[in-house]
Structures are given as C-alpha cells and as structure tokens.
C-alpha cells in the first residue's frame, strides 16, 4: 500500500525555498566516558535504533505531473554512513567554534534524493567533550507516526539493554506507472483532494495548508490573538540561506523562584525574559522604542506542567504511562504581543502572564501524548511540531517564533556518555531573521538562537541580553 505524505508533510516538502531550509535540529554536548566514544560506536547505536523510526530509512518520491502528493518509499540504497557523519574541531575546540560549525551545518540543505536527515559526531571539544548534532526535515518529523532520530538514541541509563538484531529488507519501490495509476484512482475517489494536489503542483503551496488545520490541532490548540499584520521591526527582513547560531544556558531554579514569587507559569517567566532581552536589543540598535512598542511572537509549543518535575518523561524500554499521567504536560499554540516598550521587568511579566491566562480561558488545551511515547524524551520532536504549528499562520502575522519544549530533569546518556547540555535549533521562516527555541534539561534551561547571518549579525548580543534580562527579573523578585 502506498504511504502518501500527509497534506502537511507535503506542505513542508514543497515549502522549502532557497533561503528557508525547513529542517529542525538539536545540539547535544557530552562528556567522553572512560572507555571512550568514537564514530563506530555512534554508528552501531543509530543502526540498532533505526527500527524505532522506520521513516528514517525512507525517501520522498514525487508523483509524475503532480497528480497527487508525494509518497514515502524505502531507500533501497540506504547508506547509514552517508547520514551519520564525522566532523572535528581543532583541539582544544571552543564552544564558539562549535556554534560556528552548527551554523554552517544548519545552512546546508538536505539531499531530497535520500532520507531527509543527517547526524554529525563532532570531536575535538575542550575538556574531554564531544557533541552530536542532528537535523531532520520538518516533513519527516510529525510528532505522531515519526519522531526525531535524536531521541531514540538517548537513554536514562548509562548501560541500557541492547535491542535484538534486526534484518531490514527494503520494500520494492513502486514504478512511475503504479504511482500515476494510484493517483488517478484517488482523484476519482476523492476529487476535492485531487484539486488540492493539482494546485500544489502549480506552486500554489499556500492552498495546501487548508487541509492541515486538523493535523495542527492535534499538536496544539490554536488561538489567533490578532488578525492584523505584525509590528514593523528588524526581526522581519529578506533573509539568505546562511545562518548564525548562538546559545544561552540558565538555571531552571531561577525561573521557579520567580514563578513562585509572582504566582505565574514558568513559561510566562521565559517569555518575560525574552521580552526584556528583545527590548534591550532594539535599544542597542538605536531602534525607536516607545511605551506602546510590541514584538509579536508565535509560541507554537507552550508547556504548562502541573507538577514540579513534569518535565520528565519515560525512557526507552519502559512501558508507556497511564492516561492519568498524560495530564502532566500540555501543549498549546498562540500569538502574543511581547511588551518590549515597557521598561519595568515585573510589569512585563504581568502583561505576559495576563495574556497567557486569557488564552487558557478561551482555548481547549490538548494533552501532549507525544511526550509520553516511545523512547526517552523528545524535545526535538516537539520543536518540529512547533514549526508545523507556526507555519499554519501567515508569517505577516508575527515577528518571530519561540518554541519551548521541556526535557528530562535527570542525567541522560548516549552510548554510556553523559549528556551535559542540549540546545534546540528551530528553522527560520520566510522574512524572519530570528527564531528562539529552548529546552529544559537536568536543572537548566538551554536557549538556541538561529539567525540569518547578514540581517542578524548581532545575534550574540541577544544571547547575552537573555542573561541580563533573567538577572534583572530575579533581582526584582527578591
């Protein structure tokens, strides 16, 4: 049976343009274990776990004349060494050099003649560390039938049980005539869908989003808080393919203390910290900032944990949690005007908390069951879902995307190596110069800032201002 791309998968596949590669990524830094960790070790681990994400052995095959959406087919020439790659920094490699490497890797498009993912082992980091960077096309990771490759190689135990060996045999790839015949059959059975496919073939990709609303709602409850265009500011400009990447590492306890002091959500505190940083960044650029100035953010993944350690999830090999436990995390999506014109950090937090509370009253939260599936935790998968939700909105409606996905609050391992840090990478959308993604892990909150190399050359300034904004809010809450 033909496994056709969903309407939203196809939207992402065709949406990719020269300046907007639509892949999501994840950068994880590890401490090299006493027994060492090398490329062959990672290769064996990925090969063992690929059965958990079978789509990672499949490629996209388009249908002649655009008669129907493309299909997923097994890659009969699948070469794991093409997808799992090796890189190195000149020893001792610095964090700045690592982030420059990630920026270059983000900028490169994926090969659409092969399965749409890559993984890099980065050796040579200082202090006995190494890194693993993964990137997967947004069409590949849907949060339901396909999860990110990064989360199936992460374990809660240093030495987990190995999976049984599996012999993978690719299915025969359908011929052109078979795909055309299948498309014609579907056109007769579902003529409305056929019209949508023909429009997509005519490059009217926007029309394909009409059929994606139900898919997006499975990942988020969407509330369109505004119908007007987003405010004008430097966050929106024509962009190139080249990227810059910056990070910030903060303590989760700082957010918890502020949350307790002002009776709000951790996500409110995070958005207030971003608000303060963006305000000071605009001022550093000499931009006019008045009391009424705002920056409109799309927050596709907003997690509101009900208990202190709700950021934790199950691990590979453990049975799924019961339905009652699935209420621990919820995913929502909304537009919010960040009050960057307000100079007082506490007032900024008040405005943000009021806006999110209003959203909660008017929308139906959707349980994040994806957080409880398969192996370990899936921050990268949730960030991919966030990009999907954001793309269902017109980019003219918001200035930037902010995705927030919780991670486990206990040490995690890959092949016996302890994960020290984990930074997400969310894609840039058309004419948007910055995207901010963050993940909590083992007592810290990690920010990943993906920016256009030319339009956002000062992204490091934004990263530094995140620390300053958090410190200012922490001081005010004492």
TrEMBL record:
One of its GO terms (biological process) is glycerol metabolic process. Residues 5-270 form the O-acyltransferase WSD1-like N-terminal domain. GO terms for cellular component: plasma membrane. Residues 330-473 form the O-acyltransferase WSD1 C-terminal domain. Signal peptide: none annotated. Pathway: Glycerolipid metabolism; triacylglycerol biosynthesis; Lipid metabolism. It catalyses: an acyl-CoA + a 1,2-diacyl-sn-glycerol = a triacyl-sn-glycerol + CoA. Residues 308-328 are annotated as: Disordered. It comes from the Bacteria. Keywords: Acyltransferase, Glycerol metabolism, Lipid biosynthesis, Lipid metabolism, Transferase. InterPro entries: Acyl_transf_WS/DGAT (IPR014292), O-acyltransferase_WSD1-like (IPR045034), O-acyltransferase_WSD1_C (IPR009721), O-acyltransferase_WSD1_N (IPR004255). GO terms for molecular function: diacylglycerol O-acyltransferase activity. Its EC number is 2.3.1.20. Belongs to the long-chain O-acyltransferase family. This is Diacylglycerol O-acyltransferase. It comes from Rhodococcus triatomae. The lineage of its organism: Bacteria, Bacillati, Actinomycetota, Actinomycetes, Mycobacteriales.
């Amino acid at each position: 049976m033909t496994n056709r791309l969903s309407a939203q998968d196809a939207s992402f596949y065709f949406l990719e343009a020269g300046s907007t590669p639509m892949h999501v990524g994840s950068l994880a830094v590890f401490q090299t274990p006493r027994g060492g960790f090398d490329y062959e070790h990672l290769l064996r681990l990925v090969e063992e776990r690929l059965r958990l994400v079978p789509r990672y052995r499949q490629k996209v095959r388009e249908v002649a004349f655009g008669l129907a959406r493309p299909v997923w087919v097994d890659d009969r020439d699948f070469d794991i060494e093409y997808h799992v790659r090796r890189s190195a920094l000149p020893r001792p490699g610095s964090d700045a050099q690592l982030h420059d490497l990630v920026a270059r890797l983000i900028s490169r498009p994926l090969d659409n003649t092969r399965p749409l993912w890559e993984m890099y082992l980065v050796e040579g980091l200082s202090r006995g560390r190494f890194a693993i960077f993964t990137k997967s096309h947004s069409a590949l990771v849907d949060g339901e039938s396909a999860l990110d490759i990064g989360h199936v190689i992460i374990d809660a135990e240093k030495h987990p049980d190995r999976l049984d060996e599996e012999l993978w045999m690719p299915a025969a790839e359908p011929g052109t005539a078979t795909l055309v015949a299948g498309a014609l059959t579907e056109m007769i059975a579902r003529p409305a869908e056929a019209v949508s496919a023909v429009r997509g073939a005519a490059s009217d990709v926007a029309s394909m989003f009409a059929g994606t609303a139900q898919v997006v709602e499975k990942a988020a409850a969407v509330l369109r808080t505004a119908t007007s265009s987003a405010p004008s500011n430097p966050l929106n400009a024509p962009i190139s393919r080249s990227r810059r990447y910056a990070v910030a590492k903060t303590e989760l306890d700082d957010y918890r203390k502020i949350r307790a002091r002002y009776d709000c959500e951790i996500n409110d505190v995070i958005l207030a910290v971003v608000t303060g940083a963006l305000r000071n960044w605009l001022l550093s650029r000499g931009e006019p900032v008045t009391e009424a100035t705002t920056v409109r953010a799309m927050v596709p993944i907003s997690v509101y944990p009900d208990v202190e350690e709700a950021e934790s999830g199950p691990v590979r090999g453990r049975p799924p949690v019961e339905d009652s436990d699935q209420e621990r995390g919820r995913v929502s999506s909304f537009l919010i005007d960040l009050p960057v014109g307000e100079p007082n950090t506490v007032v900024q937090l008040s405005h943000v908390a009021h806006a999110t509370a209003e959203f909660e009253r008017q929308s139906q939260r959707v349980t994040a069951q994806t957080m409880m599936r398969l192996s370990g935790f899936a921050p990268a998968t949730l960030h991919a879902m966030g990009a999907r939700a954001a793309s269902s909105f017109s980019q003219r409606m918001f200035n930037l995307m902010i995705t927030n996905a919780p991670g486990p609050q206990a040490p995690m391992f890959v092949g016996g190596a302890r994960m020290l840090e984990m930074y997400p990478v969310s894609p840039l959308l058309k004419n948007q110069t910055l995207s901010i993604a963050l993940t909590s892990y083992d007592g810290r909150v990690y920010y990943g800032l993906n920016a256009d190399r030319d339009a956002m050359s000062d992204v490091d300034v934004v990263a530094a201002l995140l620390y300053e904004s958090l410190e200012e809010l922490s001081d005010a809450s004492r």
